[in-house]
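Researcher: We plan to redesign the surface later, but first we want a full-length starting point. Tokens attached.
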């Protein structure tokens, strides 16, 4: 059984520097009209649970260069919920760019669908971003928290082994399957660098003067693609340069790309959000 506790939520938010008040046990009440009546799990934390459960189930999908996660958020997972994952049969699709093998999935929280979508292994980078026009070498020389072109925000983080181990614990994973000092093994989970997008998005909102307390936003969907070959080569204290920007000036639709040691991105992602006020209107 995987029962979500506040400790799991705290470990996840501390390991990824996610300061969203939805996860804070002392300050969630400050969110105006908060319908959840308590803290909720991080969206990326649920993604890490999906990743580690797939790995522990010895998925039959053939490993390819890229892993893809395409999620839609249905209901929050809250303290006390039991998490469980359902995976459907795999299907292969062919495109001019290569093959993709996909499994449909449903993550349930105490029996209710919380997250639905797909897990894929792909021969190609299936998520594109206009941020790929930026030069990684140029970005690495810029100060952290630089706002480029009035919209793209640069956030710099480091791959910290201790944070990754704690983050794995927040998703009920066996950290020794990823990081084992006695075997001199460091294999970061895919959702560790992906999850660092959360702090980048929050800090961008603050830099633009967005009020995260009076007008918070919640996840609607995530579509993320990460390069497994690059991920396998990451070492402790490698620097991750991330850019976050809106898609076609829509503040609720963001794109993010991250670079570490290669000119090609470690990951590309699209995230759609919704103001909490809009969700409340739909239920009124």
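Model: Full-length starting sequence:
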């Amino acid at each position: 059984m995987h029962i979500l506790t506040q400790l799991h939520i705290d470990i996840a938010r501390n390991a990824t520097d996610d300061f969203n008040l939805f996860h804070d046990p002392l300050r969630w009440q400050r969110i105006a009209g908060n319908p959840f009546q308590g803290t909720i799990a991080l969206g990326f934390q649920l993604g890490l649970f999906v990743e580690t459960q797939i790995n522990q189930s010895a998925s039959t999908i053939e490993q390819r260069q890229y892993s893809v996660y395409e999620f839609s958020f249905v209901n929050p997972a809250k303290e006390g919920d039991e998490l469980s994952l359902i995976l459907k049969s795999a299907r292969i699709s062919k495109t001019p760019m290569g093959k993709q093998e996909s499994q449909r999935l449903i993550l349930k929280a105490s029996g209710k669908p919380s997250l639905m979508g797909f897990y894929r292994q792909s021969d190609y980078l299936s998520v594109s971003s206009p941020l790929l026009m930026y030069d990684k070498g140029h970005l690495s020389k810029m100060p952290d928290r630089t706002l480029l072109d009035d919209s793209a925000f640069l956030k710099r983080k480091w791959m910290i082994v201790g944070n990754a181990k704690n983050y794995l614990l927040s998703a009920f994973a066996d950290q020794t399957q990823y990081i084992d000092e006695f075997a001199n093994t460091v294999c970061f989970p895919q959702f560790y660098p992906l999850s660092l997008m959360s702090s980048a998005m929050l800090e961008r909102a603050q830099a633009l003067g967005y009020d995260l307390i009076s007008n918070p936003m919640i996840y609607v969907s995530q579509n993320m693609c990460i390069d497994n070959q690059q991920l396998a080569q990451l070492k402790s204290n490698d620097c991750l340069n991330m850019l976050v920007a809106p898609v076609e000036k829509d503040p609720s639709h963001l794109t993010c790309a991250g670079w570490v040691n290669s000119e090609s991105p470690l990951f590309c992602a699209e995230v759609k959000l919704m103001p909490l006020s809009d969700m409340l209107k739909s239920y009124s």
